[in-house]
Amino acid sequence: MPKAELHVHVEGTLEPELRVRLAERNGVELPYRTADELAASYAYQDLSSFLALYFSGMDVLRTEQDFFELTYAYLQRVHAQNVVYTEMHFDPQAHTSRGIAFDTVISGIRRAQEMAQDELGIRSQLILGILRDMSAESAMEALEQSLAYRDWIVGVGLDSDEKGNPPVKFREVFERARAEGYKLTMHCDHLQENSVEHIRQCLDVIGVDRIDHGYHVLDDEGLIDDVRRRHMCLTFCTTSNPSDPAPRRAAELKRALELGLNVTVNTDDPAYMRSYYLSEVLLNTQQAVGLSREQVAELARNAFRSAWIGEGRGRRTL
Ligand code: HPA
Ligand code: ZN
């Protein structure tokens, strides 16, 4: 089945093998020597321990070629699963704060996107991820840096640690992003307190086009009605991980489908979540709760309908 993915972090596709290779090439010390040892260390209990792993993994990404190889490996891998279109978050602040230029990051990613489109036929677009545990000033700076590459980026998202960092903290940044013509999305993570309140802010204050995760919509009748009426897409990630058992997420997904919500299945950070890419996640989810063929097809249709295809500005974007 041709598939689209709407919620994946390109830095979250850094497989242990590539991390080891880049560490050797760039002379970076790793906490473990082999890819197997690294993979075994990918254990986390909550969002903040996950994010610590995710950010420390990025340390090996230094050059344009590194970002190219990271992105091309992901695109090649999901192309083999018949993913024909993907929208990838990238987190420039996590790199500029280490002294890596915005241009280095985005040029490597873009070169991989173009090559994958030419050689494999897979299409992709980029979402600028704002790190919500950094300041609104830093977010605005990242947004301003992105404007030089406006044609390469379709939307702006909000990720990283949600605790104490509500959507309204970035109200002006997202107003500016909207004025620049970007599509808007924000993570409303299931592992956080205040998720219902944060989803409300996304809908009523920020005016997002999509919500990443958003499971707690299901806790509130008013939100269910509102999200359904607006056909607001929720990008669920039903990958198994220790703090967030897949069967629970899969059950929520099924309920969302039964409620007629515009829900999709995505992989988020596949390299850190036991290397589950889109086909495996869909299959595991389908098996966990017995989704019908029609429901699986509906998930794929929802993703294509909610994709920001046609929103890109660049000559070679969709
Ligand atoms: N949640 C929040 N921020 C993130 C994630 C996530 O799952 N992955 C990468 N940044
Ligand atoms: Zn995410």
UniProtKB/TrEMBL annotation:
Cofactor annotation: Zn(2+)
Gene3D superfamilies: Metal-dependent hydrolases
BP-aspect Gene Ontology terms: adenine catabolic process; hypoxanthine salvage
HAMAP family recorded: Adenine_deaminase
Official protein name in the record: Uncharacterized deaminase C1683.02
UniProt source species: Geodia barretti (Barrett's horny sponge)
Coiled-coil ranges (or none): none
GO cellular component: cytosol
Domain of life: Eukaryota
Domain annotation Adenosine deaminase: ranges: 2-315
GO molecular function: adenine deaminase activity; metal ion binding
